Amino acid sequence: MKTPETTTVFAGVDGRSNAQLPAWYQQRIQPTEVISFAEAIRELPRAIETTVAYHNPQTGNWVPTERFNALVEPERLQHGQTSDAEQMDPLFHIPTDSYSIINPVDVYQPLADVLREESIDGQSLEEIVFGEIRQYRGGGEVHLDILFDGLSVELPERRQPITMGVTSGYDFFGGHAVYVEGFARDSYCANSIRQLTDRETIKHVGDVRDFQQWWNAILETLELVSNDLFAFISDASEIVVDFSEVPFGVAEFYELLEFPSYLADHAASDARSETADPFKIDMWTLHSGATYALTHFFSGKEGSALDRYVRIANEVLFNPDRTIRTVERTYEREANNETDRAGQTGLESQLALAQIERVSKDVREKTVQFEDREATLRERFASS
């Protein structure tokens, strides 16, 4: 993932919180500074509206218009635009007059208030919240990972838990509204498990809802998301792909799911290293390999490209049958492209497709169970 212009690591709601980063997170991130959540959101750039005008080349005059308003960063206006740094440009965007500004304090100060009030298993959320804030394009695009030390999925074969939380963000460029979705971080390998739920959004148009009530409902649902994730991992761990029985290797498996080769190689290497038999790998380990590659080696930027690969990775865990069918269709399409001039698919390809079909039948038994549970998980935030 491309490096953010600014990354801020936080722990605890404010200076009164008795909070520290978990040791595993501290070791992985190694931040130079850790501040409170309240301080971090106050430091984020904000936007205000100002009048827009267009130049009339016939008269040489500038004509104001009420149809649009410029979104600008007020502190940068005081200093003026500098020529050597794009992030110092005070102008974010020029939307129509229907655009409603939602500044970071509007969204996340209510969350801070909720964290002070709520607890999990007797622990106040203000003491166990931690995470990071990433800024792009001069702070006009922001993404937050908000995690809770103690709200976790405990796997029997691991001492290190999977820590639960949410990813949230916004931008001032009209690209996307304020959003939140389920998120987890595997403390064993620091993999980020994104898009655990469907994305809940609030558009910059019309009335802005009560954010405190919004955050209350989302946080109340997180424990259910944690239970759902545990059930998916447990079942996916029992579904094994025997790569000695299919006509492709582990890296090719990811490529058939349309991972680029460099990500497929990293994913395959991690998946093979985490299993006793590198030819027999369960779907949870295959998913973990994919998230490892995306977390540590994805060369693009946060946004639609990353989201697409995250969805592919999550299919491996949340719907193994759909994943195998995708692999089968892709392999068949590639085999058909290699047919001879008589239009006959080679015997080798036919045998290979039969091998994949046998794997698919083994997975298909749990299809309904996975699909029903996935639908429930996806709707957690939307129905809360």
Fold and architecture overview:
- The protein has 384 residues and is of the alpha+beta class.
- The protein has three domains: 6-43 and 103-220, no CATH class; 48-93, no CATH class; 240-365, no CATH class.
- 42% of the residues lie in helices and 23% in strands.
- The protein is built from 13 helices and 15 strands.
- A hairpin with a 4-residue loop joins β8 and β9.
- The chain is globular.
- It starts with 5 loop residues before the first strand and ends in a 6-residue tail after the last helix.
How are the SSEs ordered, and which strands pair?
Elements: E1 6-11, H1 23-29, E2 34-35, H2 37-42, E3 48-56, E4 61-72, H3 74-79, E5 91-93, H4 104-117, E6 119-120, E7 123-124, H5 125-128, E8 129-136, E9 141-153, E10 162-171, E11 178-186, E12 191-193, E13 200-202, H6 211-236, E14 240-242, H7 250-256, H8 261-273, E15 280-282, H9 283-297, H10 304-318, H11 320-336, H12 347-364, H13 367-378
Parallel strand pairs: 1-2
Antiparallel strand pairs: 1-8, 3-4, 4-5, 6-7, 8-9, 9-10, 10-11, 11-12, 11-13, 14-15
Helix pairs in contact: 4-6, 6-13, 7-8, 8-9, 9-10, 10-11, 11-12
Q: What are the segments in which pLDDT stays under 50 over at least 5 consecutive residues?
A: 83-87
User: Please, what is the average pLDDT?
Assistant: 88
Overall number of strands: 15
Please identify the structural class as seen in this structure.
alpha+beta
What is the overall number of helices?
13
